[in-house]
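User: two proteins, same treatment. go.

Assistant:
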Amino acid sequence: MSSGCHTSWKVPPEHREDPAYRAAGRRMDFAQAVYNRRSELGWTTSELARRAGMPEADIDSIEASGVDPTLELTEQLAAALKSAARFTPDTQPEFHFEDLKA
């Protein structure tokens, strides 16, 4: 059996601090948060795209971890998802959407 970072999914601490690694983690957290909230609402990607005023391909790309979560994009999706966006660097995952308090 071979050994290394990818055979056991253990990432050395020095890699965790790499800016590219952290950026990929943010994209994955964002993608999962969008998917989770959309699913909670029972919406398709086309429904979210319509409500957010963006092409469905953009939602697909976001949910595939292909888009950086900019402030503008996060605000646009939070409004469409009827949610508050939360970013908490000390938790895992760092990003999530939650219901707006009435």
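Protein 2:
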Amino acid sequence: MSDSIAIHLHIDKPETLPEGYADAIGAIFDEHASDVTDDPSLDDISGVAFVGTRNDIADDLCLLMKGGTLPAHQFSFTVYEEPHHEALGTLLRYAPGAGDFEAACTNTGEVVRSFADIGEAIAATTDRASLIAALEAMYGETNSHRRRMTGE
């Protein structure tokens, strides 16, 4: 399939999730991907999915969190699609309360930025503190975007 791509999911601190959440997260990934390699620790669940599936998985994970009533139901995650053809991969990182961060990435999920991205950050800032904040945001800190969740 030419429009399929390797996709990976990593959950931060899965050991703190309420009972049953690991199974629910695995089921969400299974729903969107095939040839799934389950990792019971949730360090890296991988499979094959259509390009752009990272957004569907992220939305479903956020809906799962929204259904919970305790802070323990909230969790951070990273889902990324590996590069394909000549295109870089795409990473989506979500943290409750902070929102999501999307960036181009390598086949191991490392964020890639171009000189043009860095130049734009430099041109848009007027002092050292705002430049540092812009560069930190570019390289993995979450920004003010929000997943499509009612009430957040």
